[in-house]
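re: the backbone from monday

yeah here it is again, tokenized this time
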């Protein structure tokens, strides 16, 4: 399967770099994998392409950090401040890997990094991961818009899930009980997914990194779900719809993990294919995230205004 087979059609990638060499290299590496690569040698040209009417949207932006005129960080701010573009995943290409520079990019909304010079496998893998994450976000938003609003009279409920499809369906349903469903839906999905893949199915951080590089993550999830050892495991979710807050408590049947290392963005993991979901969700989706015990129980809270 092509690494770009994460959307209904070819994934469109906008590559922005003032060096023609890198633009040609990106196209050379990505086009044979089925990606549609559009290039721009300046931020102004990139903005024209991003805002072009009647054209398919871009699935990801590969953005060089250091460009003359408006640099990558300034252009990233412009993208993230535009409501029609802020959800497009942006991958920062940089030769600067110092924690301060990485932290600056993360704070502005760049959760994917690509170190220059890059090789073909790393480029394809990080672009595929960003495109896939963006598609999952759009799918969750679409599910959210299709589902009916939660019943305000419901105060306590329990749910179970075990598969990736159940995670997506349940995340969209649970989000409707929160004051701002669009704010929380991606975070709810992230914690449910962690409970399934890292908790119940015992996939380690290193396992997922290797599987994403090989394009085999989803196939391995399905394989493990069919194994007798894991087949009966479920994530258990308790929703409390209270007067002053909404809470979700998520339990999994795994051995737990070192959750302290993932609550904040770690610049050392900025160039990894994953590992930013918990920190993103804590920052953007919930008022409080509290892990309990060995890490197989997490309490998510949003306060009512």
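seq for it, each position gets an aa:
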């Amino acid at each position: 399967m092509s690494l770009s087979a994460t959307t209904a059609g070819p994934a469109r990638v906008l590559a922005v770099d003032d060096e023609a060499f890198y633009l040609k290299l990106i196209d050379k590496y990505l086009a044979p994998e089925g990606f549609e690569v559009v290039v721009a040698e300046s931020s102004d040209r990139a903005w024209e392409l991003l805002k072009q009417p009647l054209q398919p949207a871009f699935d990801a932006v590969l953005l060089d950090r250091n460009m003359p005129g408006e640099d990558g960080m300034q252009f990233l701010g412009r993208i993230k401040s535009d409501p029609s573009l802020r959800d497009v995943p942006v991958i920062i290409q940089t030769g600067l890997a110092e924690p301060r520079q990485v932290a600056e990019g993360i704070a502005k909304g760049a959760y994917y990094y690509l170190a220059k010079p890059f090789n073909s496998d790393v480029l394809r893998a990080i672009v595929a991961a960003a495109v896939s994450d963006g598609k999952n976000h759009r799918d969750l938003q679409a599910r959210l818009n299709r589902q009916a609003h939660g019943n305000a009279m419901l105060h306590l409920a329990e749910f179970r899930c075990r598969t990736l499809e159940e995670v997506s369906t349940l995340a969209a349903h649970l989000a409707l009980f929160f004051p701002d469903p669009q704010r929380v839906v991606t975070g709810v999905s992230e914690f449910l997914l962690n409970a399934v893949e890292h908790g119940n199915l015992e996939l380690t951080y290193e396992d997922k990194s290797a599987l994403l590089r090989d394009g085999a993550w989803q196939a391995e999830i399905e394989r493990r779900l069919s194994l007798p050892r894991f087949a009966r495991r479920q994530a258990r979710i308790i929703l409390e719809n209270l007067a002053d807050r909404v809470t979700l408590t998520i339990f999994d049947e795994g051995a737990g993990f070192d959750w302290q290392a993932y609550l904040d963005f770690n610049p050392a993991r900025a160039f990894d294919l994953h590992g930013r979901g918990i920190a993103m969700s804590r920052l953007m989706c919930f008022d409080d995230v509290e892990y309990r015990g060995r890490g197989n129980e997490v309490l998510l809270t949003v306060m009512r205004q």
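Residues 120-146 form the longest helix (27 residues). The chain has two domains: 12-137, 147-303.
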